Amino acid sequence: MVKLIAIDMDGTLLTPEHSITPRTILAINKALEQGIQVVIATGRAFYEAHGIVREYDLNIPYICLNGAQIRNEQHEIVENYPMNNELITEVTDVFKSEDVFYQVYTDRAIYTTSIERDIDIFIELAEQSGGNPDVEKIRRLMRERMAKTSLKEVENYREIYEREDEHVLKFLAASSNKPKLIRTKSYLNEIDQLAVSSSSYGNVEVTRKDAQKGIALEKIAEELNVDLKDAMAIGDNLNDISMLKRAGTAVAMGNATSEVKAIADVVTGTNIEDGVATAIENILNNEYENTAK
User: Fold this and answer.
1) pTM for this model (two decimals)
2) Which pLDDT does position 149 carry in this prediction?
3) What is the 3-state secondary structure (H, E, C) of 229-266?
4) 14, 17, 64, 102: least surrounded by Cβ within 10 Å?
């Protein structure tokens, strides 16, 4: 019997318009009413993730920044897994050697050295994926993020690393140059104390090795006295694999990567087909009863 559900956000819980459908909200609330704990498990920082979720009145825990931060139902920080100066230097040296543009995520904000370069990379990646990006809309969204103080432009990152009251939790690098990105991932994977993953095409996400969604899910399950065989995880990309492997029922979205689908027990609909709602409804109807590993 499923007692705990962990749900990724981008490409999973959220539609392409970054909203949650009424059917999905209804399914989540039904699960909560039946005593099933629901957890958001995202690569986003809390201040970004909660900015979307709060309008739906869901008082649930968060696994943020791929597991680098855990927050309880009151949204208080339970765990933080910051990088030390040695790791920060090793990671940034790799990015510099490959000339890969990156952002820095801390427990306070997201930092970039160039909003314009962020926009250019986003547009390039969208075009490579066969899309027709709305440049003005992208610029408007970036301005909105800055207005809400979640994204800040700085001259360089050195001042952030030197602050004693602020902690680096994640790096997010992006490039439209695939060979460069592959080399970057390869070099980062050689650093033993890192967890290297991706949340979408064209990016690399880096946290401490013990800051992963699966490890965070284990901690929440232990706190709730829930066996992981009674947990369900729903995701679509590489940064979800650690929790999908640990959960008794692993659900891949219809739009998930091939790597995610390969390890899933079940493939549900896409994020524009209410895939999360379908998965939860099936759990409530005991249709996934025999999928536990």
Assistant:
1) 0.91
2) 63
3) HHEEEEECCHHHHHHHHHCCEEEECCCCCHHHHHHCCE
4) 17
